[in-house]
Design brief:
Structural class: mainly alpha
Radius of gyration: 29 Å
Distance between the termini: 62 Å
Order of helices and strands: HHHEHHEHHH
Number of strands: 2
Shape: extended
Strand order of the largest sheet: 1-2
Number of domains: 2
């Protein structure tokens, strides 16, 4: 073994000994060091997995939906005999200081609105109360009980306009993707966003112009 190898070998041994001593005397330091090492190892593992094709790289994927919705016969909203319960729930939420989007993140925009969580009003005659009971652990003595529940806090939640029926709305984004929007990590990109047909066409047109301009520059 050469001179430098011996010197640096001994120094490396002494350094390890000092580190172990610090870890013994300061458990919090040891815990923090272990946490950092775990993150570094995870990052290295993730990078190697990505290179090997084991994981899929982050990407954007366009999805076009054409839906045919079936709305059963029902009373106009304002003529619904239980509509006053909806208004009462709204007033109670405002009095209690709860009139704000339950998601409450940086994507919130627009005024708060009350959303029917499990059963939409327009689908009230299309769903089976017995199935609702079984899935949500409820019990309705009569059909009237069910009708009242539809307009109760158990079936209502406050969402801002953006999370209700606009860009990140539950009414315009498929359920599995919207649930990821609901529980989105702060600072991360939303799992999906709604783009109108007009905006999509405008973006496509702009993309073509950019491609043509780039091609002309190369020529």
């Amino acid at each position: 073994m050469g001179f430098f190898s011996k010197v640096f070998g001994r120094e490396k041994t002494r350094t390890k000994a000092r580190v172990k001593k610090v870890e013994r005397e300061h458990p919090k330091v040891a815990k923090a060091a272990t946490k950092v090492k775990r993150k570094v190892d995870h990052a290295a593992e993730h990078a190697s997995d990505l290179k090997a094709g084991i994981v899929t790289a982050a990407h954007q994927q366009a999805l076009t939906l054409h839906m045919l919705t079936h709305i059963p016969r029902h009373h106009p909203r304002e003529n619904d005999p239980h509509y006053h319960l909806f208004e009462q729930a709204k007033s109670r939420l405002k009095r209690q200081g709860l009139w704000k989007c339950i998601i409450d993140d940086d994507l919130c925009e627009g005024q708060p609105e009350l959303h029917h969580t499990h059963v939409e009003f327009s689908q009230i005659n299309q769903v089976d109360p017995k199935v609702i009971e079984r899935h949500l652990g409820l019990h309705f003595e009569t059909d009237e009980d069910f009708q009242v529940w539809v307009e109760s806090p158990g079936n209502l939640e406050v969402l801002c306009e953006n999370h209700h029926r606009a860009h990140y709305g539950i009414h315009v984004i498929p359920g599995p993707l919207w649930e990821a929007v609901r529980y989105r990590k702060k600072g991360s990109e939303a799992a999906a966003e709604f783009i109108s047909n007009a905006d999509a066409k405008a973006a496509e047109k702009a993309g073509k112009k950019t491609t043509e301009a780039a091609a002309a520059t190369e020529d």
